[in-house]
Amino acid sequence: MTKIIVYDPGLSNSPGWDDLSSSKKERLQEKTSKIKRFVGVEQLAQVNRCIELIEVRKLLQGESMTFTTYVKTVFDASKATAFRMLQQYEQIQWPEHLTKYLAERGAVLLRGTTGIGLMELANVSKELPAPKEKDPATLDAFIENTLRPALRERKVARNAGRIVSVTTDDAAKDFFNSARQIMKRARSLNTPAQNRVFLKQVVGWLMEERNISGNLECKRTTIPQGVCAKRGRPVGSGKKQREEAA
Predict the structure, then answer these.
(1) What letter would DSSP give residue 186?
(2) Where are the domains of the chain?
(3) What is the pTM of this model?
């Protein structure tokens, strides 16, 4: 049995707590203890916290105490961060067994790559497919000999001011969200006409810089889910959707 290190008294006052079985209450306190223990731990802390949060979400499925209620209780003022962490974690494209193994062994095998963020792992997972074998020796070799050099290369490139390569999809997301924020700050972009003039001018500059000839035609299109960068909870995470997911 896992020893409870941090007891959260707020859970017993949460809506739906009294409806949980004794075993679920104990498991929930154990998971909460692990989640809080990872606060302040630098390396791969967010991965560990997300793994525990996903276990909590599974544990509360079908219960009157929802996952949203749990997050509000445990994270308090930083509850938006918890939802954002989960959104980023779920972009990691490796299978669950590899991500869990990485959380367990990464602190040892990824020495020299401190400060790894969830989005960093998500981006690297798109470039480095997981090994087919699941045995510890193969996973250790993948983490130490493939993943670690890739992360260190990206870190060195960032520190040196070099451009770190990304996929076309990620480049499109970054471009969209950067332009979106810049246009929000522009004082003179208040009408659709002003926005069209601005976009035509800037895109024209980009065509010149990239040596793109001819005319560029575009029309208004629906933004795919997951493209918009959100502060706080993910897209579509309104109260009803969150409680249904719980």
Answers:
(1) -
(2) 9-90, 96-159, 168-209
(3) 0.58
